[in-house]
Amino acid sequence: MNTLAVTVIVSTYNSEEWLRKVLEGYKHQTYENYEVLIADDGSRETTKKLIEDFQKDYPVVLRHIWHEDKGYRRQRILNKAIMDAKNDYILFTDGDCIPRKDFVEVHVKFAEKGYFLSGGYCKLPMKTSEAISSEDIKNENCFDVNWLKQHDALGKKQQLKLKAGETLAKVLDVVTPTGATFNNCNSSAWKDDLIAINGYDERMQYGGPDRELGERLINYGIKTKQIRYKAICLHLDHARGYKTKESLDRNLKIRKDVKANNTKWTDYGIVQN
User: Fold this and answer.
1) Does 271 fall in a domain?
2) pTM confidence score
């Protein structure tokens, strides 16, 4: 029996309604040996209050790290979370992604030294995102295709992910043309490997910082495993006010340099000169 201890890092910023649903999801996992660490990029007091309410009777350790809101500094708080993680294995996700009950268990099952795991998500429209209650998460209604379709349209790809059993998911993860990249909503890696490349590049804004981290892990010699159809989470809809052309262009340049120079270490990460 696998007893790997996991730290689930959930990034959030001023999104209590969605974070509530996500924390509900981590209350009902089939795997037990994990902690949940909220990496908070400067949310208001109501987020802190929400987490404190959950902490009163949460089934696993639930912790909250926060820094002051000085604009988009997600990568900085994630680096703090990496160093603060109590366990050797780290699962990264977002405060808008509800995990299916086997989510942590799947990551543990496929965790292997020398690899990071790459998952995806099922994108939901706003109407469905709002309709999901705590009860729907507990009894897994929200992972049922027919239930979701009663609330709004659901894409064919999303339906396939949710309906795929173990055998089909295995096949689909082999044949999918999507690369096994490091994704913010559903990826996991060894803490030692993340520290070896100096974590996230804090120059990066919205649009690709997780991919860039994964690209440096690969340059460092870490291989990838695709678990897109095995590890399922629901992505709740939201606006992206922090997405700008400038940040996307700057991020692309950093990633281009990483590829061209086979960069493993960033000077703008956990340790900074």
Assistant:
1) no
2) 0.97
Instruction: Give residue 17's domain range.
Output: 6-261
Q: What is the pLDDT of residues 206-229, one digit of tens each?
A: 888 999 999 999 999 999 999 999
Count the domains in the chain. Answer: 1
Residues with Cβ within 8 Å of 238's Cβ and at least 6 positions away in sequence, in order, are 15, 18, 96
Q: What is the CATH number of the domain that holds 26?
A: 3.90.550.10
In a domain, 27, yes or no: yes
Sheet arrangement for strand 97-99: 97-99, 233-235, 122-123
From residue 93, alpha-carbon distances to 81, 82, 149, 155, 168 in Å are 12, 13, 25, 22, 24
Both tokens assigned to 137: 């998460």
- The number of C-alpha atoms within 13 Å of 43 and in the hemisphere containing its C-beta is 23
CA–CA dist 241, 47 (Å, integer) = 19
